[in-house]
Write a structure and sequence with these properties.
There is one protein chain. It contains twelve helices and 21 strands. It is of the alpha/beta class. The chain has two domains: about 150 residues, Lyase, Ornithine Decarboxylase, Chain A, domain 1, CATH 2.40.37.10; about 260 residues, Alpha-Beta Barrel (TIM Barrel), CATH 3.20.20.10. Strands 4, 14, 15, 16, 17, 18, 19, 20 and 21 form a nine-stranded mixed beta sheet that branches. The radius of gyration is 23 Å and the shape is globular. The chain binds ligand LLP.
Length: about 425
Protein backbone atom coordinates (compact mmCIF):
# COMPACT_ATOMS: atom_id res chain seq x y z
CA UNK A 1 0.00 0.00 0.00
CA UNK A 2 2.02 2.89 -1.37
CA UNK A 3 5.17 3.72 0.54
CA UNK A 4 3.50 3.34 3.92
CA UNK A 5 4.40 1.24 6.90
CA UNK A 6 2.58 -1.01 9.32
CA UNK A 7 3.35 -0.38 12.98
CA UNK A 8 3.52 -2.87 15.86
CA UNK A 9 -0.21 -2.49 16.51
CA UNK A 10 -1.02 -3.54 12.98
CA UNK A 11 -2.01 0.00 12.03
CA UNK A 12 -1.17 1.85 8.87
CA UNK A 13 1.48 4.45 9.53
CA UNK A 14 2.09 7.45 7.29
CA UNK A 15 4.95 9.88 7.78
CA UNK A 16 5.59 8.27 11.14
CA UNK A 17 2.00 8.93 12.30
CA UNK A 18 -0.42 6.18 13.30
CA UNK A 19 -3.47 6.50 11.05
CA UNK A 20 -5.80 5.38 13.88
CA UNK A 21 -4.55 8.24 16.06
CA UNK A 22 -4.91 10.67 13.16
CA UNK A 23 -8.53 9.58 12.70
CA UNK A 24 -9.32 10.09 16.36
CA UNK A 25 -7.57 13.42 16.54
CA UNK A 26 -8.74 14.99 13.27
CA UNK A 27 -11.83 12.94 12.40
CA UNK A 28 -12.75 11.31 9.12
CA UNK A 29 -12.88 11.56 6.17
CA UNK A 30 -9.35 12.90 6.29
CA UNK A 31 -6.84 13.73 3.57
CA UNK A 32 -3.41 12.75 4.87
CA UNK A 33 -0.44 14.13 2.97
CA UNK A 34 3.07 12.78 3.43
CA UNK A 35 5.19 15.91 3.26
CA UNK A 36 8.50 14.12 2.72
CA UNK A 37 7.08 12.24 -0.21
CA UNK A 38 6.18 15.52 -1.94
CA UNK A 39 9.56 17.04 -1.14
CA UNK A 40 11.29 13.96 -2.57
CA UNK A 41 9.28 14.21 -5.76
CA UNK A 42 10.16 17.89 -6.10
CA UNK A 43 13.82 17.02 -5.65
CA UNK A 44 13.71 14.21 -8.21
CA UNK A 45 12.28 16.68 -10.71
CA UNK A 46 14.70 19.46 -9.85
CA UNK A 47 17.72 17.21 -9.92
CA UNK A 48 16.89 15.16 -12.98
CA UNK A 49 15.30 17.73 -15.24
CA UNK A 50 18.63 19.35 -15.95
CA UNK A 51 21.13 19.34 -18.74
CA UNK A 52 24.59 20.78 -19.28
CA UNK A 53 23.63 22.46 -22.50
CA UNK A 54 20.02 23.53 -21.93
CA UNK A 55 18.32 25.81 -19.47
CA UNK A 56 15.44 24.10 -17.68
CA UNK A 57 12.69 24.88 -15.20
CA UNK A 58 10.15 22.80 -13.29
CA UNK A 59 6.75 24.31 -12.60
CA UNK A 60 4.28 22.64 -10.24
CA UNK A 61 0.76 22.48 -11.73
CA UNK A 62 -1.20 23.64 -8.73
CA UNK A 63 -4.60 22.43 -9.98
CA UNK A 64 -3.58 18.99 -8.69
CA UNK A 65 -3.54 20.16 -5.06
CA UNK A 66 -3.28 23.69 -3.72
CA UNK A 67 -3.58 25.55 -0.47
CA UNK A 68 -1.37 28.03 1.31
CA UNK A 69 0.81 25.39 2.99
CA UNK A 70 1.38 23.67 -0.35
CA UNK A 71 2.37 26.97 -1.99
CA UNK A 72 4.94 27.50 0.74
CA UNK A 73 6.29 23.99 0.35
CA UNK A 74 6.65 24.43 -3.41
CA UNK A 75 8.38 27.80 -2.96
CA UNK A 76 10.66 26.23 -0.38
CA UNK A 77 11.62 23.45 -2.81
CA UNK A 78 12.41 26.05 -5.45
CA UNK A 79 9.81 25.06 -8.05
CA UNK A 80 7.71 27.53 -10.01
CA UNK A 81 3.91 27.52 -9.92
CA UNK A 82 1.26 27.07 -12.62
CA UNK A 83 -2.10 28.65 -11.78
CA UNK A 84 -5.23 28.58 -13.93
CA UNK A 85 -7.68 30.85 -12.20
CA UNK A 86 -8.03 33.92 -10.05
CA UNK A 87 -8.61 31.60 -7.08
CA UNK A 88 -5.36 29.73 -7.58
CA UNK A 89 -3.53 32.99 -8.22
CA UNK A 90 -5.06 34.55 -5.10
CA UNK A 91 -3.89 31.57 -3.02
CA UNK A 92 -0.37 31.96 -4.40
CA UNK A 93 -0.37 35.70 -3.67
CA UNK A 94 -1.64 35.13 -0.13
CA UNK A 95 1.14 32.59 0.40
CA UNK A 96 3.54 35.24 -0.90
CA UNK A 97 4.74 32.95 -3.67
CA UNK A 98 7.47 34.68 -5.72
CA UNK A 99 5.43 36.46 -8.43
CA UNK A 100 8.00 36.04 -11.17
CA UNK A 101 7.81 32.28 -10.78
CA UNK A 102 4.05 32.18 -11.39
CA UNK A 103 2.74 30.95 -14.77
CA UNK A 104 -0.83 31.98 -15.44
CA UNK A 105 -2.82 29.54 -17.60
CA UNK A 106 -6.42 29.01 -18.65
CA UNK A 107 -8.42 28.82 -21.87
CA UNK A 108 -10.88 31.51 -20.83
CA UNK A 109 -9.25 33.94 -18.46
CA UNK A 110 -11.61 36.62 -17.25
CA UNK A 111 -10.69 40.22 -17.79
CA UNK A 112 -10.53 40.61 -14.01
CA UNK A 113 -8.13 37.65 -13.81
CA UNK A 114 -5.91 39.13 -16.50
CA UNK A 115 -5.82 42.44 -14.62
CA UNK A 116 -4.95 40.59 -11.44
CA UNK A 117 -2.11 38.75 -13.20
CA UNK A 118 -0.75 41.92 -14.82
CA UNK A 119 -1.03 44.02 -11.68
CA UNK A 120 0.70 41.36 -9.63
CA UNK A 121 3.46 41.14 -12.17
CA UNK A 122 3.34 37.36 -12.64
CA UNK A 123 6.24 35.76 -14.49
CA UNK A 124 4.41 34.57 -17.59
CA UNK A 125 0.89 34.69 -18.93
CA UNK A 126 0.15 31.80 -21.24
CA UNK A 127 -2.12 33.12 -23.98
CA UNK A 128 -4.67 30.59 -25.15
CA UNK A 129 -6.30 32.23 -28.14
CA UNK A 130 -6.62 35.25 -30.42
CA UNK A 131 -9.44 36.88 -28.42
CA UNK A 132 -7.54 36.60 -25.20
CA UNK A 133 -4.49 38.19 -26.77
CA UNK A 134 -6.57 41.18 -27.86
CA UNK A 135 -7.99 41.64 -24.35
CA UNK A 136 -4.52 41.37 -22.80
CA UNK A 137 -3.10 43.78 -25.34
CA UNK A 138 -5.74 46.36 -24.44
CA UNK A 139 -5.23 45.89 -20.71
CA UNK A 140 -1.46 46.29 -20.92
CA UNK A 141 -1.86 49.38 -23.13
CA UNK A 142 -4.42 50.94 -20.78
CA UNK A 143 -2.30 50.57 -17.69
CA UNK A 144 1.05 50.93 -19.40
CA UNK A 145 2.26 47.54 -18.20
CA UNK A 146 4.62 45.16 -19.88
CA UNK A 147 4.06 41.40 -19.70
CA UNK A 148 5.96 38.36 -20.85
CA UNK A 149 3.92 35.66 -22.51
CA UNK A 150 3.94 32.19 -23.98
CA UNK A 151 1.38 31.08 -26.52
CA UNK A 152 -0.35 27.77 -25.92
CA UNK A 153 -0.44 25.77 -29.12
CA UNK A 154 -1.90 22.44 -30.04
CA UNK A 155 0.64 20.23 -31.80
CA UNK A 156 -1.99 17.57 -32.61
CA UNK A 157 -0.33 14.69 -30.74
CA UNK A 158 -2.54 11.77 -29.73
CA UNK A 159 -1.63 10.74 -26.19
CA UNK A 160 -3.31 7.60 -24.96
CA UNK A 161 -5.23 8.50 -21.85
CA UNK A 162 -8.79 9.14 -20.74
CA UNK A 163 -10.71 11.30 -23.22
CA UNK A 164 -11.50 13.93 -20.58
CA UNK A 165 -7.84 14.52 -19.79
CA UNK A 166 -6.35 14.28 -23.27
CA UNK A 167 -5.77 17.79 -24.57
CA UNK A 168 -4.16 17.91 -28.00
CA UNK A 169 -6.43 16.05 -30.34
CA UNK A 170 -7.25 18.35 -33.24
CA UNK A 171 -10.68 19.27 -31.85
CA UNK A 172 -9.40 20.09 -28.34
CA UNK A 173 -10.51 23.35 -26.76
CA UNK A 174 -6.99 24.28 -25.66
CA UNK A 175 -4.58 26.57 -27.49
CA UNK A 176 -4.33 27.43 -31.17
CA UNK A 177 -3.41 24.69 -33.61
CA UNK A 178 0.03 24.88 -35.15
CA UNK A 179 -1.66 23.80 -38.39
CA UNK A 180 -4.26 26.57 -38.38
CA UNK A 181 -4.37 29.16 -41.15
CA UNK A 182 -3.22 32.37 -39.68
CA UNK A 183 -1.07 30.95 -36.87
CA UNK A 184 2.06 32.66 -38.24
CA UNK A 185 0.30 36.01 -38.59
CA UNK A 186 -1.03 35.64 -35.07
CA UNK A 187 2.38 34.95 -33.56
CA UNK A 188 3.84 37.85 -35.52
CA UNK A 189 1.14 40.10 -34.10
CA UNK A 190 1.98 39.01 -30.55
CA UNK A 191 5.65 39.49 -31.23
CA UNK A 192 5.08 43.00 -32.58
CA UNK A 193 2.94 44.17 -29.67
CA UNK A 194 4.87 46.89 -27.82
CA UNK A 195 3.58 45.90 -24.36
CA UNK A 196 3.78 42.17 -24.79
CA UNK A 197 7.03 40.32 -24.94
CA UNK A 198 6.69 37.00 -26.73
CA UNK A 199 8.93 34.46 -24.99
CA UNK A 200 7.86 31.17 -26.47
CA UNK A 201 5.42 28.32 -26.77
CA UNK A 202 3.49 26.04 -24.50
CA UNK A 203 1.79 22.73 -25.15
CA UNK A 204 0.38 20.07 -22.86
CA UNK A 205 -0.70 16.77 -24.38
CA UNK A 206 -2.74 15.27 -21.56
CA UNK A 207 -2.52 13.67 -18.15
CA UNK A 208 -1.59 10.26 -16.70
CA UNK A 209 0.50 9.39 -19.77
CA UNK A 210 2.91 6.45 -19.73
CA UNK A 211 4.28 6.56 -23.28
CA UNK A 212 7.63 8.29 -23.39
CA UNK A 213 7.17 8.35 -27.15
CA UNK A 214 4.23 10.76 -26.92
CA UNK A 215 6.39 13.35 -25.13
CA UNK A 216 9.31 12.82 -27.51
CA UNK A 217 7.01 13.26 -30.49
CA UNK A 218 5.56 16.40 -28.91
CA UNK A 219 9.07 17.85 -28.48
CA UNK A 220 10.01 17.03 -32.08
CA UNK A 221 6.87 18.60 -33.53
CA UNK A 222 7.33 21.69 -31.40
CA UNK A 223 10.98 22.13 -32.38
CA UNK A 224 10.07 21.88 -36.06
CA UNK A 225 7.40 24.49 -35.52
CA UNK A 226 9.93 26.73 -33.79
CA UNK A 227 12.20 26.36 -36.80
CA UNK A 228 9.41 27.31 -39.19
CA UNK A 229 8.55 30.39 -37.10
CA UNK A 230 12.18 31.35 -37.38
CA UNK A 231 12.21 30.86 -41.13
CA UNK A 232 8.82 32.24 -42.08
CA UNK A 233 8.43 35.26 -39.83
CA UNK A 234 11.83 35.63 -38.19
CA UNK A 235 10.44 35.13 -34.68
CA UNK A 236 12.78 33.76 -32.05
CA UNK A 237 11.33 31.23 -29.57
CA UNK A 238 13.35 31.25 -26.36
CA UNK A 239 11.16 29.06 -24.19
CA UNK A 240 9.45 25.75 -24.83
CA UNK A 241 7.04 24.60 -22.15
CA UNK A 242 6.03 20.97 -22.65
CA UNK A 243 3.33 20.88 -19.95
CA UNK A 244 2.81 18.03 -17.51
CA UNK A 245 1.08 14.68 -17.71
CA UNK A 246 3.68 12.21 -16.41
CA UNK A 247 1.75 9.11 -15.36
CA UNK A 248 1.98 7.67 -11.86
CA UNK A 249 1.27 4.39 -10.08
CA UNK A 250 -2.27 3.92 -8.81
CA UNK A 251 -2.57 0.16 -9.21
CA UNK A 252 -0.59 -2.71 -10.67
CA UNK A 253 -1.80 -2.02 -14.19
CA UNK A 254 0.08 1.30 -14.24
CA UNK A 255 3.63 1.48 -15.52
CA UNK A 256 5.11 4.88 -14.66
CA UNK A 257 7.96 6.40 -16.60
CA UNK A 258 11.39 6.34 -14.94
CA UNK A 259 11.80 10.10 -14.83
CA UNK A 260 15.60 10.55 -14.50
CA UNK A 261 16.47 8.35 -17.47
CA UNK A 262 13.57 9.69 -19.50
CA UNK A 263 14.55 13.32 -18.89
CA UNK A 264 18.13 12.59 -19.82
CA UNK A 265 16.90 11.26 -23.15
CA UNK A 266 14.30 13.99 -23.70
CA UNK A 267 16.72 16.83 -23.04
CA UNK A 268 19.53 15.37 -25.08
CA UNK A 269 17.15 14.80 -28.00
CA UNK A 270 15.95 18.39 -27.76
CA UNK A 271 19.52 19.60 -27.79
CA UNK A 272 20.49 17.36 -30.68
CA UNK A 273 17.41 18.12 -32.78
CA UNK A 274 17.81 21.86 -32.21
CA UNK A 275 21.34 21.64 -33.52
CA UNK A 276 20.25 19.60 -36.53
CA UNK A 277 17.49 22.08 -37.28
CA UNK A 278 19.89 24.98 -36.86
CA UNK A 279 17.88 26.73 -34.15
CA UNK A 280 19.10 28.07 -30.84
CA UNK A 281 17.97 25.42 -28.31
CA UNK A 282 15.12 26.89 -26.26
CA UNK A 283 14.93 26.80 -22.49
CA UNK A 284 12.77 23.77 -21.67
CA UNK A 285 10.05 23.84 -19.04
CA UNK A 286 7.72 21.18 -17.68
CA UNK A 287 4.62 21.39 -15.48
CA UNK A 288 3.99 18.22 -13.49
CA UNK A 289 1.03 18.21 -11.13
CA UNK A 290 -0.21 14.71 -10.40
CA UNK A 291 3.24 13.15 -10.31
CA UNK A 292 4.38 15.56 -7.58
CA UNK A 293 1.50 14.93 -5.19
CA UNK A 294 -0.66 11.93 -6.06
CA UNK A 295 1.31 9.23 -4.26
CA UNK A 296 1.82 11.41 -1.21
CA UNK A 297 -1.90 11.48 -0.42
CA UNK A 298 -4.04 8.96 1.42
CA UNK A 299 -7.68 9.38 2.31
CA UNK A 300 -8.93 7.88 5.53
CA UNK A 301 -12.58 6.99 6.01
CA UNK A 302 -14.62 5.36 8.73
CA UNK A 303 -16.81 2.37 7.94
CA UNK A 304 -20.49 2.79 8.68
CA UNK A 305 -22.31 -0.27 7.45
CA UNK A 306 -21.64 -3.24 5.28
CA UNK A 307 -24.27 -4.91 3.17
CA UNK A 308 -24.57 -7.99 1.00
CA UNK A 309 -27.24 -7.64 -1.65
CA UNK A 310 -29.73 -10.37 -2.52
CA UNK A 311 -27.63 -11.03 -5.62
CA UNK A 312 -24.52 -11.53 -3.48
CA UNK A 313 -22.62 -8.27 -3.97
CA UNK A 314 -20.70 -7.04 -0.91
CA UNK A 315 -20.70 -3.36 -0.09
CA UNK A 316 -18.78 -1.38 2.46
CA UNK A 317 -20.13 2.10 3.13
CA UNK A 318 -17.67 4.78 4.22
CA UNK A 319 -18.24 8.27 5.58
CA UNK A 320 -16.83 10.02 2.49
CA UNK A 321 -17.90 9.83 -1.13
CA UNK A 322 -17.55 11.00 -4.70
CA UNK A 323 -17.71 14.49 -3.21
CA UNK A 324 -14.17 14.08 -1.85
CA UNK A 325 -12.93 11.78 -4.64
CA UNK A 326 -14.75 12.17 -7.92
CA UNK A 327 -12.07 10.38 -9.96
CA UNK A 328 -13.47 6.81 -9.91
CA UNK A 329 -16.95 8.06 -10.86
CA UNK A 330 -15.73 10.52 -13.48
CA UNK A 331 -12.84 8.70 -15.13
CA UNK A 332 -13.21 5.13 -13.95
CA UNK A 333 -10.00 5.75 -11.98
CA UNK A 334 -8.66 2.97 -9.74
CA UNK A 335 -7.08 3.09 -6.31
CA UNK A 336 -5.83 0.58 -3.73
CA UNK A 337 -7.61 0.14 -0.41
CA UNK A 338 -6.84 -1.32 3.00
CA UNK A 339 -8.24 -1.51 6.50
CA UNK A 340 -5.93 0.94 8.23
CA UNK A 341 -6.61 -0.35 11.76
CA UNK A 342 -6.28 -4.04 10.77
CA UNK A 343 -3.37 -4.17 8.37
CA UNK A 344 -2.37 -7.70 9.34
CA UNK A 345 -5.82 -9.23 8.83
CA UNK A 346 -6.09 -11.38 5.76
CA UNK A 347 -8.08 -9.98 2.84
CA UNK A 348 -10.74 -12.51 2.04
CA UNK A 349 -13.62 -11.09 0.04
CA UNK A 350 -14.25 -8.58 -2.69
CA UNK A 351 -16.02 -5.45 -1.58
CA UNK A 352 -17.39 -2.51 -3.48
CA UNK A 353 -16.29 0.55 -1.51
CA UNK A 354 -18.89 3.24 -1.75
CA UNK A 355 -19.80 6.50 -0.10
CA UNK A 356 -22.70 8.47 1.27
CA UNK A 357 -23.98 10.18 -1.84
CA UNK A 358 -27.44 9.53 -3.12
CA UNK A 359 -26.53 7.89 -6.36
CA UNK A 360 -25.28 4.52 -7.55
CA UNK A 361 -22.32 6.11 -9.33
CA UNK A 362 -20.85 7.03 -5.95
CA UNK A 363 -18.21 4.33 -6.13
CA UNK A 364 -14.70 4.75 -4.71
CA UNK A 365 -13.61 1.23 -5.60
CA UNK A 366 -15.62 -1.20 -7.71
CA UNK A 367 -14.17 -4.36 -6.27
CA UNK A 368 -11.30 -4.74 -3.85
CA UNK A 369 -10.27 -7.60 -1.54
CA UNK A 370 -10.44 -6.75 2.15
CA UNK A 371 -10.87 -8.54 5.45
CA UNK A 372 -14.54 -8.26 6.38
CA UNK A 373 -14.90 -4.69 7.64
CA UNK A 374 -16.79 -3.88 10.82
CA UNK A 375 -18.53 -0.68 11.74
CA UNK A 376 -15.90 1.77 12.99
CA UNK A 377 -13.01 0.26 11.03
CA UNK A 378 -10.90 2.62 8.98
CA UNK A 379 -10.59 2.31 5.23
CA UNK A 380 -7.55 3.98 3.68
CA UNK A 381 -7.37 4.81 -0.03
CA UNK A 382 -3.96 5.19 -1.61
CA UNK A 383 -2.66 7.82 -4.02
CA UNK A 384 -5.34 10.41 -3.51
CA UNK A 385 -2.99 13.40 -3.32
CA UNK A 386 -3.84 14.77 -6.77
CA UNK A 387 -7.21 15.95 -8.06
CA UNK A 388 -9.07 14.80 -4.95
CA UNK A 389 -9.07 17.70 -2.51
CA UNK A 390 -8.81 20.09 -5.46
CA UNK A 391 -11.89 18.60 -7.14
CA UNK A 392 -13.94 18.13 -3.98
CA UNK A 393 -17.51 19.41 -3.91
CA UNK A 394 -20.29 19.87 -1.40
CA UNK A 395 -22.67 17.53 -3.21
CA UNK A 396 -25.47 16.46 -0.88
CA UNK A 397 -24.23 19.32 1.28
CA UNK A 398 -21.39 17.18 2.56
CA UNK A 399 -18.62 19.10 4.31
CA UNK A 400 -15.16 18.94 2.77
CA UNK A 401 -12.62 16.94 4.79
CA UNK A 402 -9.63 18.42 6.59
CA UNK A 403 -6.13 18.11 5.15
CA UNK A 404 -3.19 17.21 7.40
CA UNK A 405 0.48 17.16 6.52
CA UNK A 406 2.43 14.42 8.29
CA UNK A 407 6.19 14.24 8.73
CA UNK A 408 8.55 12.56 11.21
CA UNK A 409 5.72 11.45 13.43
CA UNK A 410 4.11 14.89 13.61
CA UNK A 411 0.88 16.03 12.02
CA UNK A 412 -0.20 19.57 11.25
CA UNK A 413 -3.52 20.65 9.94
CA UNK A 414 -3.20 22.64 6.70
CA UNK A 415 -6.88 22.92 5.79
CA UNK A 416 -9.56 22.84 8.46
CA UNK A 417 -12.57 20.56 8.09
CA UNK A 418 -15.62 22.39 6.82
CA UNK A 419 -18.48 22.86 9.23
CA UNK A 420 -22.22 22.99 8.68
CA UNK A 421 -21.88 26.74 9.20
CA UNK A 422 -19.52 26.85 6.18
CA UNK A 423 -22.15 25.00 4.18
CA UNK A 424 -24.74 27.74 4.62
CA UNK A 425 -22.45 30.73 4.90
CA UNK A 426 -23.33 32.16 1.48
CA UNK A 427 -27.00 31.27 1.60
CA UNK A 428 -29.27 34.29 1.76
CA UNK A 429 -32.41 33.87 3.80
CA UNK A 430 -34.93 35.79 1.72
CA UNK A 431 -37.48 35.71 4.49
CA UNK A 432 -35.13 37.25 6.98
N1 LIG B 1 -0.18 21.88 -17.44
C1 LIG B 1 -1.39 22.08 -17.98
C2 LIG B 1 -1.57 23.17 -18.93
C3 LIG B 1 -2.46 21.26 -17.62
O1 LIG B 1 -3.65 21.46 -18.17
C4 LIG B 1 -2.26 20.22 -16.67
C5 LIG B 1 -3.37 19.36 -16.26
C6 LIG B 1 -0.98 20.06 -16.12
C7 LIG B 1 0.04 20.91 -16.53
C8 LIG B 1 -0.66 19.00 -15.10
O2 LIG B 1 -0.89 17.72 -15.56
P1 LIG B 1 -0.50 16.47 -14.62
O3 LIG B 1 1.00 16.45 -14.48
O4 LIG B 1 -1.16 16.67 -13.33
O5 LIG B 1 -1.00 15.29 -15.35
N2 LIG B 1 -8.62 16.02 -13.11
C9 LIG B 1 -7.93 15.05 -13.94
C10 LIG B 1 -6.64 15.61 -14.48
C11 LIG B 1 -6.83 16.89 -15.28
C12 LIG B 1 -5.54 17.47 -15.74
C13 LIG B 1 -5.74 18.85 -16.25
N3 LIG B 1 -4.56 19.51 -16.66
C14 LIG B 1 -7.69 13.78 -13.13
O6 LIG B 1 -8.08 13.72 -11.97
O7 LIG B 1 -7.16 12.81 -13.67
Amino acid sequence: FGTMEINSEGHLEIGGCDSVSLASEYGTPLYIVDEKNIRNRCRIYKESFTSESLQTEVIYASKAFLNIAMCKLIANEGLSLDVVSGGELYTAIKADFPRQKIYFHGNNKLESELYMAVENNVGRIIIDNVNEFKVLSTITKNIGAKVEVLLRVNPGIEAYTHEYISTTKSDSKFGESIFADGIYDFIKEINDDPNISFKGLHSHIGSQIFEEGSFLEQATVMLKFIKSLNNKIGVQVNELNLGGGFGIYYTESDDPIDLPSFFERLLSEIDEQSNLLGIIPPKVLIEPGRSIVANAGTTLYKVGSTKTTYSGKNYVFVDGSMADNIRPALYGAKHEFCLANRMNDKAEKDFAITGKCCESGDILGKSFKLAKPNRGDLVAVSSTGAYNYSMASNYNRLTKPAVVFVKDGKAKIVVRRETYEDIIKNDVDIEG
